[in-house]
Design goal:
The chain has 103 residues and is an all-alpha fold. It has one domain. The chain is 80% helix and 0% strand. It contains three helices and no strands. The longest helix is centred in the middle third of the chain and has 30 residues. It is elongated, with a radius of gyration of 17 Å.
């Protein structure tokens, strides 16, 4: 449940960040210093996060209702792998973008 709370808080923080950028005049269109890339990447990250929250929420809900059977352990592990694969993907993208900014 903590994962879900932190995920939702992150999404809310992202929306607030987008609102602050719009107030400062940084919009999706116009490609001001790569701002459009920021919007697109953070939007995709948000979609991945929402998908992960749906999966985690499903299993948390089932666990709270005591409807998780031993045989479903593999599915829960796959859900965890999905969540951590997103972690790895975004850490890779962050490093990739930082390294390419240097050259």
């Amino acid at each position: 449940m903590l994962t879900m709370v932190l995920g939702v808080l992150f999404l809310l923080g992202q929306v607030i960040g987008w609102q602050m950028m719009v107030r400062q005049g940084y919009f999706l269109v116009g490609n001001q210093k790569g701002v459009s890339y920021f919007y697109v990447l953070t939007f995709l990250h948000g979609l991945h996060l929402i998908a992960g929250l749906v999966v985690v929420g499903y299993w948390v809900g089932r666990a709270l209702l005591y409807k998780v059977r031993y045989e479903e352990g593999k599915r829960i592990r796959v859900a965890g792998l999905f969540w951590h694969a997103l972690d790895a993907l975004w850490v890779y993208l962050f490093v990739f973008l930082q390294v390419n900014q240097l050259f």
